[in-house]
Amino acid sequence: MNRSKILTVPNLLGFYRILAFPLILWFALSGRENLFAVFIIVNFLTDIADGYIARKLDMVTDFGARLDSTADYLTYLLVFTGIYIFKLDDFLPHIESFILFVGLLASTIIVSLIKFGRLSSLHLYSFKIGGYIQGIFFVILFSYGFVTQYYYFMITWGIIAAIEHITIQLIIPEMKSDAKGLYWVIKEKYSGQQNY
After folding, report:
1. Is 194 helix (H, G, I), strand (E, B) or coil?
2. Would you list the DSSP string of 63-108?
3. Which DSSP symbol is given to 7?
4. Using CA atoms, how far apart are residues 177 and 68, in angstroms rounded to an integer?
5. Pick from 6, 8, 35, 73: most CB atoms within 10 A?
């Protein structure tokens, strides 16, 4: 792949999120809650922007999808670290559901690594929407506080999305980018196209 296809605006935003990882982790580990929250929100916004720009300017590539997925997983790791350090008391009454969600999310990574030897880059609609829902929850959590009803909405959506993700990984013969969802995978499988 030539340099001009790697150094696109969406990919640069993805690189930013990966390069920002150690700084944001340091904010968490050093107890700088406000800086941690601000930079995580910047990560969410750059994630939204890179996907939008890539689609609008026809810059969607397999490399970009992989880069975006890697940045997403690192952001999840940061969020879980921040929750553990700053907000664990809020989560303890709901810890079983949270552990189930984290376990299923980790399973999406494990299944992908075992079956395909790489991180997943499916970019399902359910995961994209879930990311927005989780981002809103995070902003509310760090600016207002823990909202139980919204938490269970977020967790339920996240669990369903993770189950869909794992199911698709078990169905498809090779990893593809932008699979959309289980409906499209099954439809394409039975129509013989298998473009996912």
Report:
1. coil
2. HHHHHHHHHHHHHHHHHHHHHHHHSHHHHGGGHHHHHHHHHHHHHH
3. S
4. 11
5. 8
- Minimal CA–CA distance to 164: which of 179, 176, 150? 179
Q: Which residue has the tokens 């999305």?
A: 161
pLDDT tens for each residue of 80-133? 999 999 999 999 999 999 999 999 999 999 999 999 998 888 889 999 999 999
Please answer whether residues 73 and 127 qualify as being in contact, where contact means their C-beta atoms are separated by less than 8 angstroms.
Answer: no
CB 175 within 8 A of CB 120: yes
What gap in Å lies between CA 40 and CA 24, rounded to an integer?
A: 7
Structure tokens at 110: 């494990």
* Residues shown for the chain: 196
pLDDT single digits (tens) 13-49? 999 999 999 999 999 999 999 999 999 999 999 999 9
- Residue 153's Cβ-count burial label (10 Å; 0-12, 13-18, 19+) is middle
Residues in contact with 21: Cβ distance below 8 Å, sequence separation at least 6, in sequence order:
74, 77, 78
Listed residue (75, 64, 79) closest to 6, CA to CA? 64
Tokens, residue 17: 């999120």
